[in-house]
Give the backbone structure.
Amino acid sequence: MAAAKPNRIAIENVIQPGKTYTVDAEKFAAMRDAVLASLPSSPPGMTVPELKAAVLPRLPDSLFPGGEKAGWWLKAAQLDQEAKQVIARATGSPVRLYRI
């Protein structure tokens, strides 16, 4: 695992176990906190579009002006938190997420 640079954080991806990526720590933390605050704690959870709608008002406009790039950061937070087993997917389709 590579050492994180200042203002950067290493994140994981549930789809690529053992691989990490470094991203902006402040943006990631803001999105992760918004995701965790928005998700219910039991299945079936929320669909990704429902989750995106729920997190947008929780994001600081200074980091995500007008919701810019929120979709990418939402996916990054989702995959990292799934890898860390903080959130999970309910069975079935579409993808529905909830906090463990």
Q: What stands out?
A: DSSP finds three helices and five strands in the chain.
